[in-house]
Amino acid sequence: MQNTHDWLAIEKTYDSGVYNKSDFVIVRGEGAYVWDAEGNRYLDLINGIGVGFLGHGHPAVVEAIKAQAEQLMILPQVFANDKRAEFYQTLVGVLPDPLSRIFPTNSGTEAVEAALKFSRAATGKKKFVAAMRSFHGRSFGSLSITWEKKYREPFAPLVEPVTFIPYNDVDALEQAVDDDTAAVILEPVQGEGGVRPGKREFFSAARELTRKKGALLVIDEIQTGFGRTGKLFAFEHFDIVPDILTLAKPIGGGFPLGAMVTTPEVADKMPKGGHGTTFGGNPLAMAAGTAAIKTIVEGRLWERAEALGKVFLEALAEIRSPKIREIRGIGLMVGIELKEKAAPYLKRLAEAHRIIGLQAGPTVMRFLPPVVVEEAELLRTAEAVADVLAHEA
Ligand SMILES: Cc1ncc(COP(=O)(O)O)c(C=O)c1O
To answer: Which atom from ligand 1 is nearest to the alpha carbon of 110?
Structure first.
Protein backbone atom coordinates (compact mmCIF):
# COMPACT_ATOMS: atom_id res chain seq x y z
CA MET A 1 0.00 0.00 0.00
CA GLN A 2 1.50 3.34 -1.07
CA ASN A 3 1.22 6.38 1.15
CA THR A 4 1.66 10.10 0.48
CA HIS A 5 5.33 9.93 1.22
CA ASP A 6 5.89 7.19 -1.36
CA TRP A 7 4.14 9.08 -4.17
CA LEU A 8 6.17 12.16 -3.43
CA ALA A 9 9.43 10.22 -3.21
CA ILE A 10 8.75 8.37 -6.46
CA GLU A 11 7.86 11.58 -8.27
CA LYS A 12 10.90 13.39 -6.95
CA THR A 13 13.13 10.48 -8.01
CA TYR A 14 11.94 10.23 -11.59
CA ASP A 15 10.87 13.79 -12.36
CA SER A 16 12.97 15.95 -14.71
CA GLY A 17 13.51 18.19 -11.71
CA VAL A 18 12.60 21.50 -13.35
CA TYR A 19 9.97 22.30 -10.71
CA ASN A 20 10.24 23.09 -7.02
CA LYS A 21 7.72 20.51 -5.90
CA SER A 22 5.53 21.17 -2.87
CA ASP A 23 5.01 18.47 -0.25
CA PHE A 24 1.36 17.83 -1.13
CA VAL A 25 0.20 14.90 -3.22
CA ILE A 26 -3.07 16.05 -4.76
CA VAL A 27 -5.32 13.23 -5.92
CA ARG A 28 -8.79 14.67 -6.57
CA GLY A 29 -10.49 17.92 -7.51
CA GLU A 30 -14.07 19.17 -7.54
CA GLY A 31 -15.16 22.75 -8.15
CA ALA A 32 -12.96 25.13 -6.18
CA TYR A 33 -11.43 22.33 -4.04
CA VAL A 34 -8.73 19.68 -4.29
CA TRP A 35 -7.95 16.82 -1.90
CA ASP A 36 -4.59 15.36 -0.95
CA ALA A 37 -3.80 11.67 -0.64
CA GLU A 38 -4.63 11.77 3.07
CA GLY A 39 -8.09 13.21 2.46
CA ASN A 40 -7.37 16.83 3.45
CA ARG A 41 -9.34 19.42 1.48
CA TYR A 42 -7.76 22.61 0.08
CA LEU A 43 -9.36 25.68 -1.45
CA ASP A 44 -7.58 25.77 -4.82
CA LEU A 45 -7.25 29.40 -5.86
CA ILE A 46 -4.91 28.69 -8.76
CA ASN A 47 -6.80 25.85 -10.41
CA GLY A 48 -4.09 24.65 -12.78
CA ILE A 49 -2.58 28.17 -13.05
CA GLY A 50 -5.74 29.67 -14.47
CA VAL A 51 -6.91 26.60 -16.40
CA GLY A 52 -9.84 25.77 -14.16
CA PHE A 53 -11.91 28.93 -14.54
CA LEU A 54 -14.91 26.57 -14.38
CA GLY A 55 -13.38 24.74 -11.43
CA HIS A 56 -12.28 21.12 -11.36
CA GLY A 57 -14.45 18.54 -13.11
CA HIS A 58 -17.22 20.78 -14.41
CA PRO A 59 -20.07 18.36 -15.28
CA ALA A 60 -20.66 19.79 -18.77
CA VAL A 61 -16.99 19.29 -19.68
CA VAL A 62 -16.77 15.85 -18.06
CA GLU A 63 -19.85 14.65 -19.92
CA ALA A 64 -18.55 15.98 -23.25
CA ILE A 65 -15.19 14.22 -22.75
CA LYS A 66 -16.80 10.92 -21.71
CA ALA A 67 -19.12 10.87 -24.72
CA GLN A 68 -16.41 11.85 -27.20
CA ALA A 69 -13.85 9.38 -25.79
CA GLU A 70 -16.17 6.58 -26.85
CA GLN A 71 -16.82 8.13 -30.26
CA LEU A 72 -13.45 9.30 -31.64
CA MET A 73 -10.39 10.71 -29.88
CA ILE A 74 -7.87 11.57 -32.58
CA LEU A 75 -8.18 12.66 -36.18
CA PRO A 76 -5.62 14.54 -38.30
CA GLN A 77 -6.76 17.89 -39.60
CA VAL A 78 -6.66 16.65 -43.19
CA PHE A 79 -10.03 15.10 -42.31
CA ALA A 80 -12.94 17.27 -41.21
CA ASN A 81 -14.81 16.32 -38.05
CA ASP A 82 -18.19 17.23 -36.53
CA LYS A 83 -16.71 18.20 -33.13
CA ARG A 84 -13.96 20.32 -34.66
CA ALA A 85 -16.46 22.14 -36.87
CA GLU A 86 -18.70 22.75 -33.85
CA PHE A 87 -15.75 24.08 -31.83
CA TYR A 88 -14.71 26.44 -34.64
CA GLN A 89 -18.25 27.72 -35.02
CA THR A 90 -18.67 28.18 -31.26
CA LEU A 91 -15.36 30.04 -30.85
CA VAL A 92 -15.81 32.29 -33.89
CA GLY A 93 -19.37 32.97 -32.66
CA VAL A 94 -18.03 34.69 -29.54
CA LEU A 95 -15.25 36.65 -31.27
CA PRO A 96 -15.50 40.01 -33.03
CA ASP A 97 -14.98 40.30 -36.79
CA PRO A 98 -12.64 39.63 -38.52
CA LEU A 99 -11.19 37.03 -36.08
CA SER A 100 -12.50 33.95 -37.82
CA ARG A 101 -9.64 31.59 -38.72
CA ILE A 102 -8.41 29.10 -36.12
CA PHE A 103 -5.25 27.02 -35.64
CA PRO A 104 -5.98 24.65 -32.73
CA THR A 105 -3.11 23.62 -30.44
CA ASN A 106 -2.55 21.59 -27.26
CA SER A 107 -1.02 24.32 -25.11
CA GLY A 108 -0.41 28.03 -24.74
CA THR A 109 3.15 28.02 -25.98
CA GLU A 110 2.10 26.29 -29.19
CA ALA A 111 -0.53 28.97 -29.80
CA VAL A 112 2.21 31.61 -29.40
CA GLU A 113 4.54 29.72 -31.75
CA ALA A 114 1.79 29.71 -34.35
CA ALA A 115 1.23 33.45 -33.82
CA LEU A 116 4.92 34.18 -34.46
CA LYS A 117 5.06 32.08 -37.62
CA PHE A 118 1.78 33.43 -39.02
CA SER A 119 3.03 36.98 -38.29
CA ARG A 120 6.20 36.49 -40.28
CA ALA A 121 4.40 34.68 -43.09
CA ALA A 122 1.75 37.39 -43.38
CA THR A 123 4.03 40.44 -43.20
CA GLY A 124 7.29 39.18 -44.69
CA LYS A 125 8.97 41.05 -41.79
CA LYS A 126 11.19 39.71 -39.05
CA LYS A 127 11.15 41.74 -35.85
CA PHE A 128 8.97 41.20 -32.78
CA VAL A 129 8.23 43.83 -30.15
CA ALA A 130 7.32 42.50 -26.70
CA ALA A 131 7.04 43.97 -23.21
CA MET A 132 9.37 43.88 -20.25
CA ARG A 133 7.98 41.48 -17.59
CA SER A 134 6.14 39.56 -20.35
CA PHE A 135 5.55 35.82 -20.21
CA HIS A 136 4.52 33.93 -23.36
CA GLY A 137 5.88 30.41 -22.82
CA ARG A 138 8.97 28.21 -22.73
CA SER A 139 9.50 26.87 -26.24
CA PHE A 140 12.12 28.67 -28.32
CA GLY A 141 9.84 31.14 -30.10
CA SER A 142 7.67 32.05 -27.14
CA LEU A 143 10.75 32.11 -24.90
CA SER A 144 12.36 34.66 -27.22
CA ILE A 145 9.56 37.15 -26.45
CA THR A 146 9.51 36.31 -22.72
CA TRP A 147 11.25 38.92 -20.57
CA GLU A 148 12.75 37.07 -17.61
CA LYS A 149 16.49 36.71 -18.35
CA LYS A 150 16.95 33.60 -16.22
CA TYR A 151 14.42 31.78 -18.42
CA ARG A 152 16.00 32.99 -21.65
CA GLU A 153 19.73 33.44 -21.39
CA PRO A 154 20.86 29.85 -20.72
CA PHE A 155 19.21 28.82 -23.99
CA ALA A 156 20.49 31.47 -26.39
CA PRO A 157 20.63 31.91 -29.33
CA LEU A 158 16.87 32.41 -29.54
CA VAL A 159 14.62 33.86 -32.23
CA GLU A 160 15.80 37.33 -33.23
CA PRO A 161 15.34 40.26 -33.53
CA VAL A 162 13.18 41.04 -30.49
CA THR A 163 12.87 44.48 -28.86
CA PHE A 164 11.52 44.69 -25.31
CA ILE A 165 9.83 47.89 -24.20
CA PRO A 166 8.45 48.93 -20.80
CA TYR A 167 4.81 47.78 -20.49
CA ASN A 168 2.26 50.61 -20.81
CA ASP A 169 4.90 53.01 -22.23
CA VAL A 170 3.47 54.59 -25.41
CA ASP A 171 6.65 56.55 -26.30
CA ALA A 172 8.82 53.45 -26.09
CA LEU A 173 6.34 51.58 -28.27
CA GLU A 174 6.43 54.35 -30.89
CA GLN A 175 10.20 54.16 -30.99
CA ALA A 176 10.34 50.36 -31.19
CA VAL A 177 7.82 49.66 -33.96
CA ASP A 178 9.54 50.17 -37.30
CA ASP A 179 9.22 49.07 -40.92
CA ASP A 180 10.77 45.65 -40.16
CA THR A 181 8.32 44.85 -37.33
CA ALA A 182 6.26 41.71 -37.98
CA ALA A 183 4.25 41.92 -34.76
CA VAL A 184 3.79 43.57 -31.40
CA ILE A 185 2.87 40.93 -28.80
CA LEU A 186 1.22 41.91 -25.53
CA GLU A 187 -0.67 40.42 -22.60
CA PRO A 188 -3.71 42.57 -21.66
CA VAL A 189 -2.83 41.92 -18.01
CA GLN A 190 0.68 40.65 -17.33
CA GLY A 191 0.15 37.46 -15.34
CA GLU A 192 3.49 35.83 -14.54
CA GLY A 193 5.03 39.31 -14.54
CA GLY A 194 3.15 40.18 -11.34
CA VAL A 195 -0.56 40.76 -12.22
CA ARG A 196 -0.13 44.13 -13.94
CA PRO A 197 -3.17 45.42 -15.84
CA GLY A 198 -2.58 47.11 -19.19
CA LYS A 199 -3.62 50.70 -19.86
CA ARG A 200 -6.21 51.58 -22.45
CA GLU A 201 -4.09 54.33 -24.09
CA PHE A 202 -1.16 51.90 -24.49
CA PHE A 203 -3.28 49.29 -26.23
CA SER A 204 -5.02 51.90 -28.42
CA ALA A 205 -1.59 53.20 -29.44
CA ALA A 206 -0.41 49.64 -30.16
CA ARG A 207 -3.44 49.08 -32.38
CA GLU A 208 -2.97 52.32 -34.33
CA LEU A 209 0.78 52.06 -34.64
CA THR A 210 0.84 48.45 -35.89
CA ARG A 211 -1.74 49.34 -38.52
CA LYS A 212 0.25 52.35 -39.65
CA LYS A 213 3.51 50.39 -39.91
CA GLY A 214 2.11 47.25 -41.55
CA ALA A 215 2.80 45.11 -38.46
CA LEU A 216 0.36 42.81 -36.68
CA LEU A 217 -0.99 43.18 -33.16
CA VAL A 218 -0.94 39.88 -31.26
CA ILE A 219 -2.85 39.79 -27.98
CA ASP A 220 -1.92 36.90 -25.70
CA GLU A 221 -5.08 36.02 -23.75
CA ILE A 222 -3.85 32.62 -22.62
CA GLN A 223 -4.30 33.63 -18.97
CA THR A 224 -6.89 36.42 -19.30
CA GLY A 225 -9.34 34.98 -21.86
CA PHE A 226 -12.82 33.55 -21.31
CA GLY A 227 -14.10 35.75 -18.53
CA ARG A 228 -11.41 35.97 -15.90
CA THR A 229 -10.98 39.75 -16.09
CA GLY A 230 -14.70 40.61 -16.06
CA LYS A 231 -15.07 40.62 -19.86
CA LEU A 232 -15.21 37.54 -22.09
CA PHE A 233 -11.87 38.73 -23.56
CA ALA A 234 -9.65 41.25 -21.86
CA PHE A 235 -9.02 43.17 -25.11
CA GLU A 236 -12.65 44.35 -24.81
CA HIS A 237 -11.48 46.60 -21.94
CA PHE A 238 -9.54 48.59 -24.56
CA ASP A 239 -12.12 48.58 -27.38
CA ILE A 240 -9.64 47.09 -29.82
CA VAL A 241 -9.56 43.95 -31.96
CA PRO A 242 -6.16 42.29 -32.49
CA ASP A 243 -4.96 40.66 -35.72
CA ILE A 244 -4.01 37.52 -33.83
CA LEU A 245 -5.33 36.19 -30.53
CA THR A 246 -3.65 33.42 -28.56
CA LEU A 247 -5.81 31.31 -26.25
CA ALA A 248 -5.26 28.30 -23.98
CA LYS A 249 -5.67 27.55 -20.24
CA PRO A 250 -9.47 27.88 -19.60
CA ILE A 251 -10.59 27.21 -23.18
CA GLY A 252 -10.63 23.43 -22.63
CA GLY A 253 -12.38 23.54 -19.26
CA GLY A 254 -9.44 21.58 -17.77
CA PHE A 255 -8.55 19.56 -20.87
CA PRO A 256 -5.28 20.52 -22.66
CA LEU A 257 -6.30 22.85 -25.47
CA GLY A 258 -5.10 26.07 -27.04
CA ALA A 259 -5.81 28.07 -30.16
CA MET A 260 -4.40 30.79 -32.32
CA VAL A 261 -7.14 32.81 -33.95
CA THR A 262 -6.52 35.26 -36.76
CA THR A 263 -8.13 37.05 -39.67
CA PRO A 264 -8.67 35.63 -43.16
CA GLU A 265 -6.22 38.25 -44.46
CA VAL A 266 -3.42 36.85 -42.26
CA ALA A 267 -4.37 33.17 -42.53
CA ASP A 268 -4.46 33.25 -46.32
CA LYS A 269 -0.80 34.31 -46.43
CA MET A 270 0.46 31.18 -44.64
CA PRO A 271 1.48 28.66 -47.31
CA LYS A 272 -0.15 25.21 -47.27
CA GLY A 273 2.02 23.00 -45.07
CA GLY A 274 3.65 26.06 -43.51
CA HIS A 275 2.56 24.94 -40.07
CA GLY A 276 0.99 21.81 -38.53
CA THR A 277 0.31 19.68 -35.47
CA THR A 278 -0.49 16.00 -34.87
CA PHE A 279 -2.64 16.34 -31.77
CA GLY A 280 -3.98 19.88 -32.30
CA GLY A 281 -7.69 19.90 -33.13
CA ASN A 282 -8.30 16.34 -31.89
CA PRO A 283 -12.01 15.65 -31.44
CA LEU A 284 -11.66 14.95 -27.70
CA ALA A 285 -10.17 18.39 -26.99
CA MET A 286 -12.64 20.00 -29.38
CA ALA A 287 -15.59 18.49 -27.50
CA ALA A 288 -14.17 19.71 -24.18
CA GLY A 289 -13.56 23.18 -25.64
CA THR A 290 -17.06 23.55 -27.03
CA ALA A 291 -18.58 22.51 -23.69
CA ALA A 292 -16.35 24.96 -21.78
CA ILE A 293 -17.01 27.92 -24.07
CA LYS A 294 -20.77 27.30 -24.12
CA THR A 295 -20.87 27.01 -20.33
CA ILE A 296 -18.99 30.31 -19.90
CA VAL A 297 -21.01 32.18 -22.51
CA GLU A 298 -24.47 30.85 -21.61
CA GLY A 299 -23.85 31.66 -17.93
CA ARG A 300 -22.32 35.09 -18.73
CA LEU A 301 -19.69 34.01 -16.20
CA TRP A 302 -17.48 37.07 -16.79
CA GLU A 303 -20.12 39.04 -14.87
CA ARG A 304 -19.75 36.76 -11.87
CA ALA A 305 -15.95 37.03 -12.18
CA GLU A 306 -16.16 40.81 -12.10
CA ALA A 307 -18.48 40.86 -9.06
CA LEU A 308 -16.46 38.30 -7.11
CA GLY A 309 -13.20 40.03 -8.00
CA LYS A 310 -14.50 43.29 -6.54
CA VAL A 311 -15.50 41.60 -3.29
CA PHE A 312 -12.11 39.90 -3.03
CA LEU A 313 -10.11 43.07 -3.78
CA GLU A 314 -12.17 45.11 -1.29
CA ALA A 315 -11.62 42.52 1.43
CA LEU A 316 -7.87 42.39 0.70
CA ALA A 317 -7.70 46.21 0.79
CA GLU A 318 -8.85 46.05 4.45
CA ILE A 319 -5.66 44.23 5.44
CA ARG A 320 -3.34 46.50 7.40
CA SER A 321 0.13 45.09 6.98
CA PRO A 322 3.44 46.93 6.52
CA LYS A 323 4.56 43.94 4.42
CA ILE A 324 2.18 44.87 1.55
CA ARG A 325 3.55 47.12 -1.18
CA GLU A 326 0.52 47.06 -3.49
CA ILE A 327 -2.61 45.05 -4.22
CA ARG A 328 -3.48 44.79 -7.93
CA GLY A 329 -6.14 42.97 -9.82
CA ILE A 330 -8.93 42.83 -12.31
CA GLY A 331 -11.79 40.34 -12.03
CA LEU A 332 -10.56 37.02 -10.70
CA MET A 333 -6.90 37.77 -11.34
CA VAL A 334 -5.41 39.20 -8.18
CA GLY A 335 -1.86 39.90 -6.99
CA ILE A 336 -0.58 41.06 -3.61
CA GLU A 337 2.90 42.51 -4.01
CA LEU A 338 4.91 42.22 -0.83
CA LYS A 339 8.04 44.07 0.23
CA GLU A 340 9.62 40.66 0.81
CA LYS A 341 9.56 37.15 -0.66
CA ALA A 342 6.07 35.71 -1.15
CA ALA A 343 6.94 31.99 -1.02
CA PRO A 344 7.01 31.52 2.79
CA TYR A 345 3.60 33.19 3.16
CA LEU A 346 2.06 31.05 0.41
CA LYS A 347 3.49 27.95 2.09
CA ARG A 348 1.93 28.98 5.40
CA LEU A 349 -1.39 29.76 3.68
CA ALA A 350 -1.48 26.20 2.35
CA GLU A 351 -0.30 24.53 5.56
CA ALA A 352 -2.23 26.53 8.15
CA HIS A 353 -5.36 27.50 6.19
CA ARG A 354 -5.44 24.90 3.41
CA ILE A 355 -5.69 27.60 0.74
CA ILE A 356 -3.55 27.31 -2.40
CA GLY A 357 -2.19 30.44 -4.09
CA LEU A 358 0.94 30.88 -6.21
CA GLN A 359 3.80 33.24 -6.85
CA ALA A 360 4.08 35.68 -9.74
CA GLY A 361 7.75 36.64 -9.54
CA PRO A 362 9.52 36.48 -6.17
CA THR A 363 7.38 38.98 -4.23
CA VAL A 364 3.81 38.65 -5.54
CA MET A 365 1.18 36.35 -4.02
CA ARG A 366 -1.14 35.52 -6.93
CA PHE A 367 -4.69 34.19 -6.89
CA LEU A 368 -6.58 32.94 -9.95
CA PRO A 369 -9.81 31.74 -8.30
CA PRO A 370 -12.24 29.68 -10.33
CA VAL A 371 -15.55 31.39 -11.10
CA VAL A 372 -17.38 28.69 -9.13
CA VAL A 373 -15.80 29.93 -5.89
CA GLU A 374 -18.23 31.32 -3.30
CA GLU A 375 -17.97 34.87 -1.96
CA ALA A 376 -17.55 33.49 1.59
CA GLU A 377 -14.50 31.52 0.45
CA LEU A 378 -12.84 34.66 -0.90
CA LEU A 379 -13.61 36.54 2.34
CA ARG A 380 -12.11 33.65 4.30
CA THR A 381 -9.04 33.85 2.05
CA ALA A 382 -8.60 37.57 2.77
CA GLU A 383 -8.70 36.79 6.52
CA ALA A 384 -6.20 33.99 6.05
CA VAL A 385 -3.84 36.27 4.08
CA ALA A 386 -4.07 38.84 6.91
CA ASP A 387 -3.23 36.08 9.39
CA VAL A 388 -0.18 34.76 7.53
CA LEU A 389 1.17 38.28 7.00
CA ALA A 390 0.74 39.00 10.72
CA HIS A 391 3.31 36.29 11.49
CA GLU A 392 7.03 36.11 10.74
CA ALA A 393 7.94 34.49 7.41
C1 LIG B 1 0.14 34.86 -20.99
C2 LIG B 1 0.68 33.49 -21.18
N3 LIG B 1 1.12 33.11 -22.39
C4 LIG B 1 1.61 31.87 -22.61
C5 LIG B 1 1.69 30.94 -21.60
C6 LIG B 1 2.24 29.57 -21.89
O7 LIG B 1 1.23 28.62 -21.83
P8 LIG B 1 1.56 27.06 -21.63
O9 LIG B 1 2.13 26.90 -20.27
O10 LIG B 1 0.23 26.35 -21.82
O11 LIG B 1 2.52 26.68 -22.70
C12 LIG B 1 1.26 31.29 -20.32
C13 LIG B 1 1.39 30.33 -19.19
O14 LIG B 1 1.42 30.67 -18.04
C15 LIG B 1 0.74 32.60 -20.09
O16 LIG B 1 0.32 32.98 -18.89
So the answer is: 11
